[in-house]
From TrEMBL:
Keyword Hydrolase attached: yes
Taxonomy of the source species: Eukaryota, Sar, Alveolata, Ciliophora, Intramacronucleata
GO cellular component term of the entry, any: mitochondrion
Originating organism: Ichthyophthirius multifiliis (White spot disease agent)
CN hydrolase domain sequence ranges: 1-174
Protein name: Nitrilase member 2, putative
Length: 204
């Protein structure tokens, strides 16, 4: 079993990162992903937020191998960037993408499920979105959307919850993943003679 979650991380230079970590079945640190895309938005009359006032962005694409499958990591706003998911899956071999996040009540109802399913369909992979539960007893605190879920490579939500704390279980079938990729062979149909997305850090 691997355990994946997010923490605020401070480096040796006192830079603060929104970081996702993975602990492997031996209890060792398997991966560290520092959020690449910071949540700087301005929606007039609704929300203004500048994550970059507090956090520094990461600069690496993060994949780790569990021995069962390859997992790609992102944090919250990272899910909005299709190119990032594409590189993790189609260039680096990720079969599952995991995004811990905390979507708001403003964007969550419209974007959370749509983005999880879009990334799954874009890359024919499993996508897991773990969103902060909503603490409804206190209206003065941040209300997250919740609705954690797992989406399969065909874009189907296989297991989900509402806004409360919950534990979700689902079997990941890599044979099914391979079947879907064979039936809808987008990996072989890419027109790299016309366009391409690369990982500039590793030149892949």
């Amino acid at each position: 079993m691997s355990i994946i979650g997010s923490i605020p991380e401070i480096d040796s230079k006192n830079n603060l990162y929104n970081t996702c970590i993975a602990i492997n079945q031996e209890g060792n640190l398997a991966a560290v992903h520092r959020k690449i895309h910071l949540f700087d938005i301005n929606i007039p009359g609704k929300a203004t937020y500048k994550e970059s006032d507090t956090f520094k962005s990461g600069d690496k694409i993060t994949i780790f191998d569990t021995g069962f499958c390859k997992i790609g990591l992102g944090v919250c706003y990272d899910i909005r960037f299709a190119e990032y998911a594409l590189v993790m899956c189609q260039k680096k071999g990720a079969q599952i993408l995991i995004y811990p996040g905390s979507f708001s009540m403003g964007t969550g109802p419209y974007h959370w499920d749509l983005l999880l399913r879009a990334r799954a369909i874009d890359n024919l992979c499993y996508v897991i979105g773990s969103c902060t539960a909503r603490f409804t007893q206190d209206s003065s605190v941040y209300w997250a959307w919740g609705h954690s879920r797992l989406v399969d490579p065909f874009g189907q939500v296989k297991v989900s919850c509402e806004y409360e704390e919950a534990i979700l279980y689902h079997d990941v079938d890599l044979d099914y993943l391979d079947q879907i990729r064979a039936q809808i062979p987008i990996y072989q149909q890419k027109r790299y003679d016309i366009y391409e997305v690369i990982d500039k850090k590793s030149n892949i």
